[in-house]
Amino acid sequence: MxxxxxTLACPSWNWETIxxxxxxxxxxxxxxxxxxxxMYLPKARPFLPGNIQETMADLKKRGLAICxxxxxxxxxxxxRYDKAITEGRDTIDLAARLEVPYIRVFGDLVPPGAQHExxxxxxAQGLEELxxxxxxxxxxVLLETHGxxxxxxxxxxxxxxxxxxxxxVLWDFEHPYMHGESVSDTYGHLAxxxxxxxxxxxxxxxxxxxxxxxxxxEVPVPEIVALLKEGxxxxxxxxxxxxxxxxxxxxxxVSLPAYIGYIKQVLGQ
Length: 269
Fold this sequence. Notes:
globular; 9 helices; 39% helix; 269 residues; single chain; two-stranded antiparallel ribbon; alpha/beta
């Protein structure tokens, strides 16, 4: 398995710092969720038409890959559905140019007052549209286990309505587990669809939960990695450490070395 971190962990770093630090710390790759404050990835400086070839050449020289482009697409809101489709297509086009295999999207929420069935149908429709668009571009569209779409039953309900072969699952370790689903249940049902992972840790508090450094919380990361290994997964173990959204979390100078040291130990490297 290969090791990456998502750029939410280092929101204050510019692109040059991100790639140089990834190389220095021994990461295999980087997952992109915003660069230099730009969350719409086709507009991010390294991926602009005049910069993209230099970016790709530099990554190759450093022995780094971009493992996934994380869009903000969510399909639960009918009023924003067309905007989500547009962002998804733009992100797929960028992934194809960068030779990145995956983009991430959300089902996300069942809004108050909405019918669960209607939202599931709309999420499935969004995945189908983007999947069809991605099919001839060597890109897959991955639905993350997140929000109200964080457990295997609802994920399978969505996927059962999708025909495109370019759709899969991004398993965020923390969301299903911290909402009461066992890792064996999640993996046992979603294994055929899992193409990518987010490694994240958290612990319960009186008011809910809080994110923390990998190994300091309750998510059984070694157990999950063992399940993936036994199942033949050979993809990415990508740290999602959400400092972009939770500024009180540790700085990347702490979180990123801590993660690669921890996960290499789990992998026996």
